[in-house]
Design goal:
Blueprint (H helix, E strand, L loop, with lengths): L8 H13 L1 H15 L6 H41 L8 H5 L2
Amino acid sequence: MDKAKGIKPDDMELFLRTKEKNPILYERVLGLLGLVHESVLRKADDVEFEVIDRLRNMGNDALTSWSSNQSAQARDLSLEQQKNLRRGEKKSPLEDNVR
């Protein structure tokens, strides 16, 4: 394994932003890291199943967060586009009969 190169500032910023915007995903990442670094002796099968379960939950949380962000962006874009539309002036009833 290569030596750890240290945490890049962008990575730390992303991690801290995740803590703020998605604390559940943040806690899941920390839990997985804690599992990797725990000093308790356990059977490999037990740890394997726990890692798989944690990753499945983390994936679900990540996709839920992603879809929520996509929905918010689409909503904001739609609202901005609607704001930029100019409404046509309403015709008076007399104009309909003039033809």
